[in-house]
Batch of 4 targets.
Target 1
Amino acid sequence: MAALLMPRRSKGVRTRLGCLSHKSDSCSDFTAILPDKPSRALKRLSTEEAARWADSFDVLLAHKYGVAAFRAFLKTEFSEENLEFWLACEDFKKTRSAAKLASRAHRIFEEFVDVQAPREVNIDFQTREATRKNMQDPSLTCFDQAQGKVRSLMEKDSYPRFLRSQLYLDLLSQSQRRLS
């Protein structure tokens, strides 16, 4: 009966969600959620590029496949909201329309920062309250403190685990095999 109530999903979505339900961190799961078609994306990704992600967190975040791989890893840890918040803040800072600024700020706050938000990020009370206060008169910098805390958390906690993960090691291995 429950199956009758569930909407039909496309095969691609089932594949992507299926890999997450097993909490796997292998490269085969990563390829299902690359921004381009997996085979084309892996052909474009050089071993040097993937290896450079280990140089610094900034290098990883500056590469679209690095972000995709890191997102896939965070999904296996059920903490992708941190990256999604950071990316939302980066996109928010590009807002040029004063009319859109307040509504975008409130949307980000309600989705990620507010207590019991659907994708609540792990920040301390003082940061959450300072950000709440910033919502009274939103500006392009209203999330800077919260974004900095989340970035620091990812860099110190999730990023080192990502570099040791089977997903990253498999990705390096696959790109090296393509070259030989």
Target 2
Amino acid sequence: MDRAILLLSAVCVTVSSQPITDSQRLFSIAVSRVQHLHLLAQRLFSDFESSLQTEEQRQLNKIFLQDFCNSDYIISPIDKHETQRSSVLKLLSISFRLVESWEFPSRSLSGGSALRNQISPKLSELKTGILLLLRTNLDAPEIFTDTSALQLAPYGNYYQSLGSEESLRRTYELLACFKKDMHKVETYLTVAKCRLSPEANCTL
């Protein structure tokens, strides 16, 4: 078992005796995890874009701006002001749903195997960490009584046999959406972590 997961578990055991200190430690690990995932997502997307012709990039970017991600069905803050007004529990709940929604689609992300193979296990580790943070909140059990019900369906017909142009578009969308969602989770967890420090300025 990964050392980070063992550390998260050990911290969770003692959370009742030192809630603030242990929560900060859990948040630090979770934020570090999602920052790494966001970096991986950026590299995968950048590598894919660099393999395209200029006109292909322009057309795909135009299409994506008019399209939406599968995870957009997860209700989340519409701007930074709403994010800052959201409770820690709400930010954790949304982050959990976003991470879980990628557990299956992440296996089909395009890119170098060295990068791609890191994503699924790191998503699983991040999900475990967020769940531990949720369990430190007394209201969390009421919201997460059945986490399996939160998982979204895979990305539509992405897995069907497609023509070359359609396949290119779907690959672009999947990588762009993954990068977008990891940025969201990084923002939400960072703001939630900041809330544990009353004197900190959590302005985005």
Target 3
Amino acid sequence: MYYIVLFILLPACILADETATYSFSPPVGSGSGSSYALSGEGRITAVRVWEQYNSYIDGIQIRHGFIWSRVAGYSSGTPLEIELREDEAIIQISGKYAHYVRSLIFITNQGRTLYAGQPYGHSFNMYPEHPQAELLFISGRYHGALTAVAAHWGAPGSIAGNSTRH
């Protein structure tokens, strides 16, 4: 009986520990249009953002490892991009929104930032609930340009971070 309890509780404890760092920052923006989830395997290694001059965020793309996600929204013009260094992670997303997402600021654990868009509208600030967590993927909606963005946080390699999301 002792061994049965041990074999049942041990995996449950391991699973609870791995998912304990997962948190979710709910979407901001109007939320109209088609949904997207920019996820992948491994850590985020780069972010690209396309902005409409003096206006809103046209599109966004995330790279996990060496593989770029599809673009959510439009990808016209030259993107703004941050390529993360070894052991660098995104630990905060801030910005402004009205109907569309107007600006995005990605902040890393090494103090670097990627700023895109114009500071107009309602402010938001997204960050993980756990200090060892980092950005795993983003989701939201787009109708031409981005109308909503949400953040999913966790420890790299955790069950929540490696599951398939569509």
Target 4
Amino acid sequence: MQPVVSVWVRDPRIRKNDFWHAYIDYEICLHTDSVCFTKKVSSVRRRFSEFVWLRQKLQENSMLMVQLPELPPKNPFFSLNNAQQITDRMKGLQKFLEQALQSPLLLSDSLLHLFLQSQLSVSKMQACAAGRTHYSVAQAVKHCGLRRFHSEEDLKKDLSMSCDSDCDSSECRDPEPRIKALALNKAASTALLDLKGTSQEENFSCTSEST
């Protein structure tokens, strides 16, 4: 069967560098069963300038053997407050990725994989692809997205985002058991701390659940 590679560009968010400068980044969700990818489900955020960089690098690395798809044109009047402009750009970015992922030659480019499945910056992607980092491309992809949950709210938010990404796991269908488990662990930790405060002869350690 033909491998499935599905990609979505969505959820535009305004980011502020400082009081005067802001930009928009977009979530890139990828689901695949292709052996070309280390990770079968991933989600990263990228901004338009990074898409421009990626296209330029893919063109250079392919030595003009592939006609790369076009990105949505730069608009000198692009506004962060114009919903239609943002939507049109987002659709254009998704179309670019969909077409790029149809090329076997481009799929062999490490930069494409780092762009889609790691949170590395442009400079670190280049260094990693060139072998100038202590981690490999596969390691950068594998460790992308690993983080600790510090509250029930964080867990609920993460599960909700995973379900939005068409996740079909049992945790997406029914996240309550995992949330309840975290709540029980939190309650047990609180009880241990209370005992520690009332008894000078016993020592208890409390660890928070990580995911």
